[in-house]
Each structure stands twice: as structure tokens, then as C-alpha cells.
Sequence to fold (478 residues):
Amino acid sequence: MDAGVEGALRAGLEDYELSPEDVALLGDEGAGGPEDAPAGPLPVLAVVGRPNVGKSTLVNRIIGRREAVVEDVPGVTRDRVSYPANWAGRDFTLVDTGGWERKVEGLNLAVAEQAEIAIDLADAVVFVVDATVGATSSDEQVVRLLRRSGKPVVLVANKVDGPRQEADATELWRLGLGEPFPVSALHGRGTGDALDAAVRLLPDVSAVGGAEPTGGPRRVALLGRPNVGKSSMLNKLAGSERVVVHPTAGTTRDPVDELIELGGRTWRFVDTAGIRRRVHLTKGADFYASLRTQAALEKAEVAVVLLDASEPLTEQDIRIVSLVVESGRALVVAYNKWDLTDEERRHYLEREIEKELVQIPWAPRVNVSAMTGRHLERLVPALDTALDSWDTRVPTGRLNSFLGQVVAAQPHPVRGGKQPRILFGTQVSTRPPRFVLFASGFLEAGYRRFLERRLREEFGFEGSPIEVSVRVREKRKR
Fold:
């Protein structure tokens, strides 16, 4: 399509009602690239403390609605749950955690572990203590944990319902975390001052994920459920026993990215934390896999999802793949333990892939053995393919020429006597490629999937998710 035809299409858009955002988008079109990735995610504020000190009540107070489950028994909150929040004009992500307890086992141990992770993945922490009980040995353990993390902390003395309890709050100075803010999460007393202090500690952009500089070695997240072979693969790639799989219980995880030479180039394998999964932790594996997957994805450009080819695909495998797609990262699927699969297993695996991984037929696939190192060299071309697709930009003229041909060959079905028409298409960004289509009416989900499939057939995008959104615009009234 030449510039004249494209200009005519753009001019035709003027006959339709366009919002200021539409005009800005069309004006900026083509300017994006690797730098057009968002400046970074919102800062993260984690609310931590031992069980039953009122963390979820405080979270409900902050977000202005009763969303976190509250019950007067310890341990109701078991998961790390994120909520969008705003205070004094500042947007941030608020994380509610389960209670942290020392010397606990089973479920309580899992709750403690995820609170520990929440601190790792937060920019600042609100530490809640029950002022009516005072600082317990568990609270003092949390203080040590917080000090080791180096994160800024606001100390909240909860359950201070009136002036009488304020003396209880002053006792908490001895924790050495600075001034305790007397608060009644239940009644709202004092929460504003505590929040003002917490928001002042937050950076403009989260420093714990996503705000990675562009350039330098490409960043790879090695993901997969427990025992799928992540640590074995990383050690084999690194050529040494680089990863400790059984650190001492009770120590904090020490996230370290691995610089690894592959195919004559240096790659940065971001710390997935799941690699350093504690061997004594047997419960909550599903929860940790998804939590740590998200943390790794925030820092990565491409994910290698490791699946165990010798066993049936699990719900957790599928969930990890979905997380990668939802995060907009490039994707390579590595089927590990290929040396342990026979012909019958490979037959069933292909059927499982067709059924369970139907949403990612576009992801490059490599069959490897992390234990023996078989075919690990195939990772590099697969990673290159996925990252090239992730960075691909389609010229606007070529895109609209393609859309014109597709729509002429297979127009949208007529619905209610009307046939929606695609007016103009543009790629608004890369990493991953995002397309906006202006249309005269609503495009059904099935037709949008058809367009995505045809986009892939025409332009490749092997190894990268793509996003296609539609803006319905009506003709200007004469």
C-alpha cells in the first residue's frame, strides 16, 4: 500500500467520531519500539505481621471496601493478595499477606514463607503489631527479617481505639523501627497519618520488578513447577553447581541473577526464586509457583517454561504458561527429561499439548534433557526467534494492505442487519506487539481470533503473544 492510499484511509477516519486519545494514538503511531515499554510498574506496599493483628481490616480500610476476608481467628488470610490502591493522589499496589510466625510447620509455615516473599517483592512495608498485646517474640523475629531486607518500614500499632490505649503504642518504640503510629483499623482512627508516612516511602516506579534498564544481556526467566528440573538446567547451562537447592530453613532467599554464556553471547537468567525453593517446604507449592513466576516475569523479557515430558501436563504447568502470556513476555517451551520418554509417552504428550496448550501453538518448542545437556544448544535460536518477534513492528501501510485483503476475502458476519467494517489498523507498540483496529461496529471475539491467527500467518510473531484491541467509532452526525 502506498502512502497515498494510507493517507486516504486516515482521511476517511475523519468522518468518524474520534476521541482525543484516538488522535494522540494516531499521531504517535510508529514512534514506539523497545523504549515504548511502560516506565515501570506501580510501587508495591506490603502489609505484614503475625496472625490476627488486623492486617486485612487495615487493608479494607485503605482500599475503601470490604474485600479482604476478616475473621477473629488467626490465619484466615493465607495467600498474598494484591489490590490497586490510591492515597493522597498516589496510585500503588497494596499487598495483604498471611500472618508471619516463627517455628511453625505445615500451613503456618507456608503462610510465613509467603509473607517473607511479600517483603522481598515490596518497595515499602507496613508492619502491623497488636498494641493491646505488645511486641511478642514473633514480632521481634519479623523485625529482624525486616532489617535484613533493608526495606523502609512504617510501624503500625493497631487496636488503639482511644486515648487509653495510646500508652500501649508507645511501648513499641523499643522495636527500633521508629515512631509507632497508633491506629484503629476497625474504626479508621489514625490510619491517615500512617498512610501518609507509608506513601512518602514509596518510589515513583517499583524498584522490585519491571523497571529494568533496556540494553545489556537479554533477560530470561526459567520457569516451571517444583521438581521439573529448573535448577538442573541452570547448573548445566552455567557449567557449574551455581544454584543451592537447600538453603538453611529460616534464612531469607538471596536473589541473584545468573550471567551465562550461551551460543557465544551472555544472557542474564533472572532469579526465579522457585529455583531456590526450600526442600523442607512441601505445602503451598502451587501458590509459590505462581507468586514466584510473577516476580521473575516482572524482570524478564522472555520466559523459558520447563515442562516434564515424562509425566502428564498438570494444571500448574498450564497456569504458569498462562501467566507468561498474560504478562506479555516472549515465550519458549522446553520439554525436559526427553531422554526418559518412550514412543507411547510421546504420542500421549502430543495429544496433551493439542488439548491443554491450545492457546500457544505459536511458542517455539525444544525437547531437552537438563540432566545430560542434550539439545540445550537449541535454546539459543528459539530465544532469538521469540525475542525478534517480541520486538517486531509492522509498517502501517503493509498492515492496512493486509487487513484489506483479509476483510475482502472473509468479511465479518452480518449481525442485526449491520456488517461492521475495519476502517484502519495501527501497531501502537512492541514488547509485545499491540495492534489497535478502528471499526464501524463491534467485532465478535471469534472474528478477532481469526484476525490474530491471520496476523501470525502473515507476519510470524513466533514466540511472542500479540494483542489486538478494537475501537468502535460511529460516523459524525451531519
Confidence is low (pLDDT under 50) at residues 30-39, 66-80, 243-255, 273-285. The longest strand covers residues 422-429.
